[in-house]
Amino acid sequence: MGDRRLDQPLILYLHGFTSGPQSKKAQALARRMAQRGLAERTAVRFRPLVYSSIAALIVSGLYRIISTPGHSPRYHALLGVKLLLAAHVFAVSALIVKKDSPRRTRLMTGAAISGFAIIAIASYLRRIF
Ligand code: HEM
Q1: More confident residue, 24 or 128
Q2: Ligand 1: which atom is nearest the Cα of residue 85?
Q3: 71 Cβ contact partners less than 8 Å away, ≥ 6 residues apart
Q4: Which residue has the higher pLDDT, 104 or 82?
Q5: Each residue of 103-121: pLDDT tens digit?
Q6: Which of 74, 77, 89 minimizes the C-alpha distance to 119?
Q7: Is 68 within 8 Å of 108 (Cβ atoms)?
Q8: Cα dihedral 15, 1, 93, 78 sign
Q9: Is the pLDDT of residue 9 over 90?
Q10: What is the pLDDT of residues 55-72, one digit of tens each?
Q11: H/E run at residue 90
Q12: Distance, CA 57 to ligand 1 centroid (Å)?
């Protein structure tokens, strides 16, 4: 981290065993981040990464579908569920990096849940044809 500019914020958040989003520490950090506009700045920085990741996942996923034909109906049904969940993750990710996006934390939780489900389905798809 030698070239990190000193005027850039660095947050080291040590998560306690019993602390949660409603804890004093988390609330104080959220207030401080809001005062400094950190959530907005972080969202703006992540925007290009989010859009290029979506494009890369669509291109590589379509390539994979086209290059391996002949799958079973069960495979296609599960792939359809995975694609719907992926569409949910993409839409929510675009909303998260939008300017002044309300309910960012809630949206991120939804995207994470769908993301885990997608990975579970993808690993099952590898085993069936
Ligand atoms: C949030 C978005 C997505 C995530 C997190 C995700 C994740 C994954 C993972 C972890 C794999 C297993 C990779 C491997 O076998 O090494 C996979 C496979 C695959 N993905 Fe995705 N994916 C996403 C979106 C998409 C999209 C948009 C498409 C299609 C347009 C797609 C199509 C596929 C296909 C066809 C496979 C191969 C399944 C098989 O093994 O037969 N994925 N994905």
Answers
A1: 128
A2: 1
A3: 79, 129
A4: 82
A5: 888 999 999 999 999 999 9
A6: 89
A7: no
A8: negative
A9: no
A10: 999 999 999 999 999 999
A11: helix 73-96
A12: 7
Is the distance from the beta carbon of residue 58 to the nearest atom of ligand 1 less than 6 Å? yes
Burial class (CB in 10 A: 0-12, 13-18, 19+), 49: exposed
For the Cβ of 111 lying below 6 angstroms from any atom of ligand 1, the answer is: no
Nearest to 93 by CA among 120, 54, 36: 54
The alpha carbon of 1 and the centre of ligand 1 are apart by a number of angstroms equal to 33
Whether 96 and 108 have beta carbons less than 8 Å apart is answered as yes
* Structure token pair of residue 112: 């994470």
CA of 12 to the centre of ligand 1 (A): 33
Structure confidence by residue, pLDDT tens digits, 35-57: 888 888 889 999 999 999 999 99
Cβ of 86 less than 6 Å from ligand 1: yes
Return the residue whose CA atom lies nearest to atom 17 of ligand 1.
122
Q: How far is the CA of 99 from the centre of ligand 1 (A)?
A: 29
